[in-house]
Every structure is written in structure tokens, then in C-alpha cells.
């Protein structure tokens, strides 16, 4: 593609918007899936008679697959063509969704989620590469502003749609709903996307791939096994973590040798990219980890239906929808060092309410807090990433976006595991009820029975207990959630340290083509 073939106008024309429709469909499907499953976790616990830590693997397996496939997407797009690979990713995601609906055990569901993740991991990087080639990198800020609103339908609509489907039909439908969307997206992609002209320009780093992908997968597997094991002493925790870490360290040492490494760590010599990556990494550990627990509080402590829990989460998405387009337009004009700290302050202000939760906390207060956090979210993640990539040379942008996305997936997995460990350990500290054991012979705790009775009131008829025990159990469960949110809150505060180093002067974007004539590739939307 030549520089002249990209429109120079700042307005997005009909041809660009037609291509954007394909990307938006894929993005909504991918993002919707993450948020839909988050409200289904208690349902999976009941359906498959599994612990929270075990069921959390339905989220973790998806993330592991994302982290494994993201390094491949840039090279594969050059080798096979973006349109062809995007359609393969859509097909994988859609087939994985259909298989998830057929799962009879929690193990099967986790396995099928891996297949979904392999498709989902490629949808966003490829989608944004397609969009930048259609619109031109000089319109990235405006592009993010336009795409931001429909993409936020996932976080807003996901919990509501998931809750409604689970309450009125069954959990199977949270996956079956992807089938018609996937088929429409495949047909639309075939008709709307420009024909491929693959031009493999770089050799593929197979040695790096054999170290990085298994290394990441093993390390994150070990971290994610923590909630179930409850301690680092378990071999299934430290074993994979040790082997995974060794492979990742070996990759880091090796990656400076090849001309085209799988992950170009030399880019960290760019100060803006490094600071933005650290800021994003710390923030995601805190916010994404705790974010999975917000619906669980409504479901397990407050006894709400999945639909109500979804509706209660909606203010966060609405807040982000209001500020994301504004942040997208400001990203090209105002240094993010002057805007992101204000957005982080909004997140901190909203988050504080969740550190004070009890079994009767006002929904008006929590809804307002989620809305304020959403306002901050919309002004945080995308501006940081756009700013980081703008100062890279044109041929480094795709590699930079891959780096940031890998860090995001690792941060999300670590955050989810850490918050799950803290919550599980807190809940395990609840007082056992004398004479009551579960089917496996373990003592039933006050908090455990209280949480179970919120979702299954008939349990209290089968095993009559003093109402004060249930009340005490709910108080303990709420305190356990509050303690976990305190840890996440402290990590969000820690994000202000690297955020203070973000650029406070206007950055000049790199030109469309570098001296070698290589085309700019897009930053990848984080999800």
C-alpha cells in the first residue's frame, strides 16, 4: 500500500466505516464473551459442583490461549494475509463457542474455552491492523473515538445479556448466542474486507516461539493454580511457574540475538513505551483482577439473580462509553501525562466504596461508584497505549502493540489469580458449623452455607440452622470481599507512581511510512 492510497482527510468515509463494521462485530463478540462468562461463574459452580477456584479456570484458560497466540498474529498476518487469518480467527471463536455449549463437565468447558481464546486472541490485533490500513494511522485517535462506543456494548450488554439468558433459558445460551453473530461476521468479512496480498517480509522466530509461548502458558498455569492449591508449596503451583519462568528468562536472553525476534524487547529502550507498559501492567493487575469479583459480590453476598447482577454492573460501561470517545479525540492534542492522572483519580474515588462493602451497602452508592470508575476507565487505557506507540518508528508499531498486549494478558491472569487467592483464603477462615459436612466430607463453614443459601434458598429447609449463623456468614463473606478490594485499591494507588512519569509534553507522531517504506500497523485495542 502506498502513502497516496490512504485518504488524507480526517473524516472517516463510507469505505472505512464498512470495514469498521466487520472489526466491531468481531470485537463485540470477543469482549462480550469475557463479560458474559464473569456473571456465570456462580452458575458454573452449582452446575458442575466445582469450587470458585476451579470455575475461575473458564476465564483463565481463555486468557492463557490469548497470551499464547498474540505473538503469532503479526507474523501470520504477513504470511497468510489479514483477511484470511481474520476469518480463520472468527471461525475458531464461533466453533469454540458452539462446543462450550455442549460441555458436560467443567474440564470440557475449560478445554473448549482454550479453543475460543485461540480465535479471540487474533481477532483484535488483526482487526486493528485491517482498520489502520483502511483509515490511515494519522486518523487513529478519531478511529478509536468512533470504534470505542460500539465496542463498549460488550462490557455494558455482556453481564445483562448473560444474566437474562441464564435466568430465562440456561447457561448454554451464553455461548450459543455467538453462533449467529459469528456466521454473520464471517459472511460480512468475506464481502467487505479487501482482498489479501500477503507479502512475508520477515523470517519466523521458531526458536523464540518454542520458548515464549510454552513459557508464558506454564507460568500463568502455575499462578492460576494458586487459588485451588492455596499455597506456593504445592508442586502444581511452583513446578509450572519455575519451568515457565526459566523458559521466559531464556527467551529474554535469546531475543536480543535474532534480527526479527518473536517479541522485540529492544523496544523497551523507548522511554515512553516502557513507562506506559509499566503503568498499564500495574493497573490491570489491580483493576481486572478485582473487576471479576464485582458481579460475584452481587450474586453471592446479596443473593441477586444473574440478570440483576448484570444490570448493576452496567453503570461502569456507561461511564466508560461517555469518556472513551472524548479521550480518543484528546489523545492527539493533549499530553497523556496531563490527563491520565485525573482519570486514575476518578477510578480511585469510585473504587473506595467497594473497600467498605457489607451485606446491606446501598446499591445507589455502588452504582454511582461503578459509574465514576467507568468514567476513569474510558480515559486511562486507550490514551496510554496510543501515546506509547505514537513515538515508535513505523515498522516498530506492530511489535510494540504485541509487547503491550502480552503484558496486559499476563497482568490480567496474575490479577485474577491473586484476587482469587486472597478471597478464597479469607472465606476459608470462616467458622465451621458443627456436624455439617459437604459431599466430599469437608466441614461446611458459616460463610460457605450463607453464600450457597443465597443462590439456593431450599438448602436451609434441607439443613435447618439458626438464622443468626446465616447472618454471621454473610457478614464474614462481605468482609472477605472488602479485604480483597483493599488489596486491589492499594495497587491502583501504586499506579500513580509510573503514571507520574508519563509524557507531559506533546508528542509528534511518526510519519506514515519510515525510510524503508514499511507501512504503519495499528495499535491493538486492549480487552
Structure description:
- The protein is mainly alpha-helical.
- The chain folds into 3 domains: 181 residues, MFS general substrate transporter like domains (Growth Hormone, Chain: A), CATH 1.20.1250.20; 56 residues, no CATH class; 244 residues, Growth Hormone, Chain: A.
- Helix content is 72%, strand content 2%.
- The chain has 23 helices and 2 strands.
- Strands 1-2 form a two-stranded antiparallel sheet.
- Helix 1 packs across helix 14, helix 6 runs antiparallel to helix 15 and helix 10 packs antiparallel against helix 12.
- Pfam families: MFS_1.
Can you tell me the CATH class of the largest domain?
A: Mainly Alpha
**What is the CATH homology-level superfamily of the largest domain?**
MFS general substrate transporter like domains
Q: How does the major sheet shape up?
A: 2 strands, antiparallel
Shape: globular
Please indicate the percent range of residues in DSSP E strands (runs of 2 or more): under 5%
Number of domains: 3
Number of strands: 2
Uncertain parts: 1-8, 511-527
What's the CATH architecture name of the largest domain?
A: Up-down Bundle
CATH topology of the largest domain: Growth Hormone, Chain: A
Mean pLDDT: 77
Strand and helix order: HHHHHHHHHHHHHHHHHHHEEHHHH
Amino acid at each position: 500500500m502506498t502513502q497516496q492510497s490512504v485518504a488524507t482527510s480526517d473524516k472517516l468515509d463510507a469505505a472505512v466505516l464498512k470495514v469498521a463494521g466487520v472489526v466491531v462485530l468481531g470485537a463485540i463478540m470477543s469482549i462480550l464473551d469475557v463479560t458474559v462468562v464473569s456473571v456465570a461463574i456462580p452458575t458454573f459452580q452449582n452446575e458442575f459442583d466445582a469450587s470458585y477456584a476451579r470455575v475461575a479456570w473458564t476465564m483463565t484458560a481463555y486468557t492463557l490461549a490469548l497470551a499464547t497466540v498474540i505473538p503469532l498474529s503479526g507474523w501470520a498476518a504477513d504470511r497468510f494475509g489479514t483477511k484470511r487469518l481474520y476469518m480463520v480467527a472468527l471461525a475458531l471463536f464461533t466453533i469454540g463457542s458452539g462446543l462450550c455449549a455442549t460441555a458436560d463437565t467443567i474440564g470440557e468447558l475449560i478445554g473448549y474455552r482454550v479453543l475460543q481464546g485461540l480465535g479471540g486472541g487474533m481477532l483484535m490485533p488483526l482487526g486493528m491492523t485491517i482498520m489502520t490500513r483502511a483509515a490511515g494511522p494519522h486518523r487513529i485517535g478519531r478511529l478509536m473515538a468512533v470504534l470505542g462506543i460500539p465496542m463498549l456494548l460488550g462490557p455494558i450488554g455482556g453481564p445483562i445479556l448473560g444474566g437474562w439468558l441464564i435466568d430465562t433459558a440456561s447457561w448454554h445460551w451464553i455461548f450459543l448466542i455467538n453462533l449467529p453473530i459469528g456466521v454473520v461476521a464471517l459472511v460480512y468479512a468475506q464481502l467487505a474486507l479487501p482482498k489479501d496480498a500477503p507479502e512475508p517480509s520477515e523470517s519466523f522466530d521458531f526458536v523464540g516461539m518454542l520458548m515464549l509461548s510454552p513459557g508464558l502458558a506454564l507460568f500463568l498455569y502455575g499462578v492460576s493454580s494458586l487459588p485451588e492449591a492455596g499455597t506456593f508449596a504445592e508442586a502444581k503451583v511452583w513446578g509450572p511457574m519455575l519451568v515457565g519462568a526459566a523458559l521466559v528468562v531464556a527467551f529474554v536472553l535469546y531475543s536480543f540475538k535474532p534480527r526479527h525476534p518473536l517479541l522485540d524487547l529492544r523496544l523497551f529502550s523507548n522511554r515512553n513505551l516502557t513507562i506506559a507498559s509499566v503503568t498499564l501492567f500495574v493497573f490491570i493487575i489491580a483493576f481486572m483482577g478485582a473487576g471479576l469479583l464485582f458481579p460475584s459480590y452481587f450474586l453471592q453476598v446479596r443473593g441477586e439473580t444473574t440478570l440483576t447482577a448484570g444490570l448493576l454492573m452496567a453503570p461502569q460501561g456507561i461511564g466508560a462509553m461517555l469518556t472513551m470517545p472524548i479521550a480518543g479525540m484528546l489523545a492527539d492534542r493533549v499530553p497523556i501525562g496531563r490527563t491520565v492522572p485525573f482519570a486514575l483519580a476518578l477510578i480511585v474515588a469510585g473504587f473506595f466504596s467497594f473497600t467498605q462493602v457489607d451485606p446491606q451497602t446501598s446499591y445507589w452508592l455502588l452504582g454511582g461508584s461503578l459509574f465514576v470508575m467507568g468514567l476513569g476507565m474510558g480515559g486511562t487505557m486507550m490514551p496510554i497505549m496510543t501515546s506509547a506507540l505514537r513515538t515508535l518508528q513505523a515498522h516498530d508499531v506492530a511489535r510494540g502493540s504485541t509487547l503491550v498486549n502480552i503484558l496486559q494478558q499476563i497482568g490480567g491472569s496474575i490479577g485474577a489469580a491473586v484476587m482469587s487467592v486472597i478471597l478464597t483464603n479469607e472465606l476459608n477462615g470462616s467458622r465451621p458449623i458443627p456436624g455439617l459436612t459437604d459431599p466430599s466430607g469437608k466441614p461446611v463453614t458459616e460463610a460457605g452455607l450463607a453464600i450457597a443459601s443465597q443462590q439456593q434458598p431450599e438448602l436451609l429447609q434441607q439443613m435447618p440452622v439458626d438464622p443468626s449463623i446465616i447472618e454471621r456468614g454473610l457478614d464474614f463473606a462481605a468482609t472477605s470481599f472488602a479485604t480483597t478490594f483493599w488489596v486491589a485499591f492499594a495497587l491502583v494507588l501504586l499506579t500513580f507512581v509510573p503514571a507520574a512519569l508519563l509524557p507531559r509534553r506533546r508528542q509528534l507522531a511518526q510519519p506514515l511510512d519510515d525510510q524503508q517504506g514499511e507501512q504503519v500497523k495499528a495499535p491493538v485495542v486492549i480487552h
